[in-house]
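Problem: given the chain below (329 residues), write out its structure.
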Amino acid sequence: MPEENDRRSGPPPHTPAAAARQREHEATRLMAMSFDSAASPSITLRALAEVKEHDAPYGWGFAWYPEPARAAMVVKDPSSIGENAMTKVLREWERFASTVFVCHLRGAARTLEEQDTHPFARSFGGRDWCLAHNGDLFGDLHLALPLDDDGAFEPLGHTDSEHAFCWLLGRFRAARARRLSDVPWPTLHGWLRELDALGTANFILTDGTDLVAYHDDERYNGLYLARLLPPHEPRLEADDLVVDLHDAGDMSRTVALVSTQPFQGASWAPMAGGQMVVIRRGAYVFDNHPRRRGSSGFVAPMYRRRRRRCCRRGSSGEPRRRGPRPRLG
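Solution.
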């Protein structure tokens, strides 16, 4: 996403700077996964594992939530060339386990600082929230998306994406919400539509429990959905990313995926423009385009309520035991 000065003064269309930025955004990938229980996939950044000397820097970032899924771990590198200790964490570390994973890949990366690299994370309501964005928001965001005066949420860097994230968190705080599900899903969809009206907007947002994916109204850069039920393919491959689920436990998990680029090894459905889905533990709990559920395998999660056994007390004050129900007929 562009730096603040670039965005505000903004190069006019068809200039070399605008063309370079457009190429970078077209090479940007979002990917997110929601498992029904904690999984530990092995993830390889193919663009770095197969790097050549003449390759350009490659920016990337990952966020996940180790149990009990309140504190996020965020690892990112704004301009990698080749593998390093952090990329090996994604592939080899046995503690790389979570129900929610968020990934942002930025090919042909310009030199950015870590504070401008996705995903962004903030603590609010006793948990960490993470956001990744693919697109551009234009105009003076101080006027279009004013932040709270008390400075509770302020950007550390200079991106439009982080400013939008701080604005969203301010809306949640104003609504007295402490988690994503505390706000009606149509209300959140309306907030994301407000951001979309300022430019191009593919968003991944999570609080460690729910995972929200929103697709740009004009379907900028594409966004796809898939849901894998066990037993499923143990390996998912895309041009720049490989997700390995060979572990016996991971192969028995249900997983819902969101990605800019479909992976081999799964059946994908394109999201509609302006579509927002909410995923919890591998199940889709909200979709503002319910007509598309048949094609994308949406399943609402089942919640069982424990029934309280009520015992009426007799005249003596002792609990009255219910006898067996009489058979009918």
